[in-house]
């Protein structure tokens, strides 16, 4: 064999080796579908989840994961959530991202899932009868207690701390959730220390018309609305910056809440970074699916204090971009 033929032969051998490696990879890897992650949140089609789902979708795209957003209405109990989990297990999903349902029994449902499929809880921990108890589950969420504290601090700040005699109504969502209980607890502890008089507290039950119930309650000077759904509803009905004679401060997660702030119907917003919640929760799941030995970690995400004057600042415009 001449030197030239020898070189040609070696090149051909190398090309065949490359082609063989390519076909081998294609057979075992090329047609493997992306792993599926089911997302279970209450009222999944609601606009308040836009930023959260955008964060998840972006991370899923980067991590080559298939996102299944379950079609849900209100999750009134652990049984509702258990049924949704069962349906997705039958759908052969590989992991879950879950906003836990109200009530103590949710713990048992999630303990049954643990060890079967990886999951991350978002927005809140499971509810517990113990006020400051934390579960052992992985969570990606804002500090709900801190959010309540921050809202009270802003209210005190705007009255120069002179809250003596001022009357306050506290409005929250389902009382059997970690989110509502810790937001109320954080707000009340700071406000009571600052001299504010909390006249009443209201937790919305399923399908109640919060607006009508609030109108029937004793008059107050300020409303602290700690639930985004109720904030949108009450804020929309405010007139000249007041609802039934009260100024509104609240926790919001929708574009509508920012519009109400811009219109002067809400005085101050505390806003969790839902894009970060979505992005980080999906990244934790992706790491676990890639490496079964990976120990997932909880994340505490940022919150923003927003006034009307802040809406066109660079930081807030960047923050609002995540809703698009």
UniProtKB/TrEMBL annotation:
The keyword Heme does not apply. Keywords: DNA-binding, Membrane, Transcription, Transcription regulation, Transmembrane, Transmembrane helix. InterPro entries: Peripla_BP_I, SBP_2_dom. Pfam families: Peripla_BP_4. The lineage of its organism: Bacteria, Bacillati, Bacillota, Clostridia, Lachnospirales. It comes from [Ruminococcus] lactaris. The chain crosses the membrane at residues 7-28. Residues 37-289 form the Periplasmic binding protein domain. This is Sugar ABC transporter substrate-binding protein. One of its GO terms (molecular function) is transcription cis-regulatory region binding.
């Amino acid at each position: 064999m001449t030197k030239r033929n020898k070189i040609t032969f070696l090149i051909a051998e190398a090309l065949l080796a490359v082609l063989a490696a390519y076909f081998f990879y294609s057979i075992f890897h090329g047609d493997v579908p992306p792993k599926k992650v089911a997302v279970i949140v209450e009222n999944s089609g609601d606009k308040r989840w836009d930023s959260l789902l955008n964060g998840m979708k972006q991370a899923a795209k980067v991590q080559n994961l298939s996102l299944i957003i379950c079609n849900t209405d209100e999750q009134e109990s652990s049984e509702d959530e258990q049924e949704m989990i069962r349906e997705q297990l039958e759908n052969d999903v590989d992991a879950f991202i879950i906003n836990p349902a109200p009530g103590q029994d949710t713990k048992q449902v999630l303990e049954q899932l643990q060890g079967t499929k990886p999951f991350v809880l978002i927005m809140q921990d499971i509810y517990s009868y113990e006020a400051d108890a934390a579960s052992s589950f992985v969570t990606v969420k804002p500090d709900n207690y801190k959010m309540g504290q921050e809202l009270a601090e802003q209210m005190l700040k705007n009255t120069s701390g002179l809250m003596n005699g001022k009357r306050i109504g506290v409005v929250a969502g389902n009382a059997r959730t970690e989110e509502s209980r810790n937001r109320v607890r954080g707000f009340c502890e700071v406000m009571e220390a600052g001299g504010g008089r909390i006249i009443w507290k209201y937790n919305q039950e399923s399908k109640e018309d919060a607006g009508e119930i609030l109108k029937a309650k004793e008059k107050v000077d300020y409303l602290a609305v700690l639930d985004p759904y109720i904030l949108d509803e009450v804020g929309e009905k405010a007139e000249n910056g007041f609802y039934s004679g009260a100024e509104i401060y609240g926790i919001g997660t929708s574009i509508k809440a920012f519009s109400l702030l811009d219109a002067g119907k809400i005085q101050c917003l505390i806003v969790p970074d839902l894009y970060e919640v979505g992005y980080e929760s999906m990244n934790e799941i992706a790491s676990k699916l890639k490496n079964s030995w990976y120990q997932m970690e909880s994340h505490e995400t940022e919150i923003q204090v927003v006034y009307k004057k802040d809406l066109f600042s660079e930081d807030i415009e960047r923050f609002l971009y995540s809703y698009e």
